User: Which sequence fits this backbone?
């Protein structure tokens, strides 16, 4: 027996629609039993990627393998995978229970098994009370849970979740995350796409950042965060002349004249912060407010995707507004 | 994919399609109630006038009922087709269709389920309109063999139109579009020998009426059930149905295998 192949292995994958390149040479590898998140803005090519990996769409060139089998062999791949699309793939006119039994029937599990499995999954996904209600009456969160329950009827080896929490409220989103985490406990591999950094950060073992059909970065959440060293300090002033003096003192700072603020890159250490503040103090500059911003995935994401969308020469790491103010001084 | 798997998958899809039929009240009304209302309207509103002495139709209201009952059976098939097109179109907009495409199941099962479900739904509606016609006093003098032939023709027409309307539904961009696409099928019977004899029409309309597909079908049905000349019409009717089935089936196959 050879070493078990990666759950997903993609190399040089390309796809274009009518002259427009959607995937421009993607390479990635997902080990069995892990969660991989493909993170990117709308139109990055995430769904096209999922469609190719799930046999819905042929690639123009390159190879993609699931558990060692080429995705072009749809008959070999389909028994291994399960997919939930960007819009919950449930039958609105059937009840939750009927949806699950239909799936079981399509997999030819036998009547008794189908009923028992449906009851079991409804229970597990907190849908037991809604089992007799039609899909159309379900809330967004319930639909996604039913969707995922249907995905599990066949006990797939690799599960594809295309934006599993788009449009969900925070509570339902957290509930989905719990469910997804539980799945990997059984050795299932999960490939998910998301526009939410937090989701990738929370769930994924590895994250691929995708933009304009290219993987612009790949790694664990921590590895990606490390690509933007340290964080920054934001200094706010009460008057424009104070800001001008401070900006003169700290060459590497980025000025925000409207907010009378400076953003200064830092390694986040106390020593460098003290040095900075001492320097301003010595010059008699009055700082109205100081906040320390630590780099998070948002910064990484914006840095990586801005670089390819807006080649204006703006410092990429500072392109977006800071999103997390982890410590207030 | 073995044949037995395909049959079992199609059975599951048929079950699904029949459930959809019952759970879509609007469609149930369009498919079942509209033809009955039309029948009542033609008999009790137009029947008195049209049945008394208008060209070649003596005998008043009850004779007119005999004249139009076979036409109403066909009209019911057309309305059933409208239901089928909209049902299929609604289904194709559901995410679940893409899920089916990624599953290790027979990929023609979904279409097979829709065709069988559409045919069964339409035949049920035809059964209902037949009962309604008999309830209003329709008393055909057909022999058992003629009844069987008429039923066979209705089945063939139903299969042909169901295949065609499934193609309309699968190709339409929205359920509204599907509904519009089948409108001609619901209007064409009016411009045929269904409700008045074609010879009473002005020449251009008459020519259109005589050569469009519904006229030979209606003439054959009427000939079988209440008497009247059939002649070539039976074969022309069969050819139209076969053509509709073939075009519908091929077109549906293409539409169903196309990803949206």
Assistant:
């Amino acid at each position: 027996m050879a070493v078990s192949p990666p759950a997903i292995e993609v190399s040089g994958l390309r796809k274009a629609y009518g002259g427009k390149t959607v995937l421009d040479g993607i390479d990635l590898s997902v080990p069995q039993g892990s969660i991989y998140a493909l993170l990117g803005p709308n139109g990055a090519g995430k769904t096209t990627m999922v469609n190719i990996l799930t046999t819905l769409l042929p690639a123009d060139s390159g190879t993609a393998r699931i558990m060692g089998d080429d995705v072009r062999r749809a008959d070999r791949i389909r028994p291994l995978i399960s997919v939930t699309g960007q819009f919950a793939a449930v039958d609105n006119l059937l009840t939750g229970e009927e949806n699950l039994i239909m799936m079981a029937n399509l997999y030819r599990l036998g009547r008794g098994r189908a009923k028992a499995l449906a009851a079991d999954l409804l229970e597990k996904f907190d849908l037991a009370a809604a089992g007799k209600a039609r899909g159309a009456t379900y809330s967004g969160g319930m639909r996604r849970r039913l969707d995922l329950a249907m995905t599990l009827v066949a006990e797939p080896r690799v599960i594809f979740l295309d934006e599993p929490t788009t449009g969900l409220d925070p509570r339902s989103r957290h509930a989905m995350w719990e469910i997804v985490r539980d799945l990997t406990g059984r050795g299932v591999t999960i490939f998910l796409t998301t526009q939410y950094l937090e989701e990738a950060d929370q769930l994924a073992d590895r994250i691929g950042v995708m933009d304009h059909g290219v993987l612009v970065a790949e790694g664990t959440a921590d590895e990606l965060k490390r690509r933007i060293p340290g964080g920054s300090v934001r200094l706010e002033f009460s008057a424009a002349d104070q800001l001008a003096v401070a900006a003169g003192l700290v060459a590497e700072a980025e000025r925000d004249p409207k907010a009378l603020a400076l953003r200064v890159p830092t390694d986040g250490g106390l020593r460098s912060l003290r040095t900075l503040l001492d320097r301003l103090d010595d010059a008699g500059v009055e700082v109205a407010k100081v906040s320390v911003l630590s780099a998070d995935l948002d910064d990484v994401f914006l840095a990586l995707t801005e670089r390819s969308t807006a080649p204006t020469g703006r410092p990429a790491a500072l392109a977006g507004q800071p999103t997390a103010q982890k410590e207030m001084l | 994919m073995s044949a037995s798997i395909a049959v079992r998958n199609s059975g599951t899809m048929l079950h699904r399609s029949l459930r959809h039929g019952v759970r879509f009240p609007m469609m149930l009304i369009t498919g079942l109630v509209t033809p009955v209302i039309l029948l009542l309207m033609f008999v009790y509103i137009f029947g008195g006038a049209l049945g008394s002495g208008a060209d070649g139709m003596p005998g008043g209201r009850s004779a007119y009922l005999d004249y139009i009952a076979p036409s109403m059976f066909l009209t019911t098939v057309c309305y059933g087709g409208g239901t089928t097109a909209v049902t299929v179109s609604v289904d194709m907009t559901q995410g679940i269709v893409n899920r089916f495409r990624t599953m290790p199941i027979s990929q023609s099962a979904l279409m097979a389920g829709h065709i069988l479900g559409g045919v069964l739904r339409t035949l049920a509606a035809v059964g209902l309109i037949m009962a309604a016609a008999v309830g209003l006093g329709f008393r055909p003098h057909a022999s058992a063999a003629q009844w069987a032939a008429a039923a066979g023709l209705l089945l063939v027409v139903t299969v042909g139109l169901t295949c065609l309307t499934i193609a309309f539904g699968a190709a339409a961009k929205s359920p509204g579009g599907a509904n519009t696409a089948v409108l001609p099928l619901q209007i064409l019977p009016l411009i045929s020998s269904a409700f008045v004899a074609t010879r009473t029409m002005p020449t251009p309309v008459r020519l259109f009426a005589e050569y469009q597909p519904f006229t030979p079908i209606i003439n054959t049905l009427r000939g079988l059930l209440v008497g009247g000349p059939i002649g070539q019409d039976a074969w022309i009717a069969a050819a139209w149905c076969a053509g509709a089935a073939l075009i519908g089936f091929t077109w549906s196959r293409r539409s169903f295998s196309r990803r949206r």
In short: Chain B has one domain: 3-257. Chain B has ten helices and no strands.
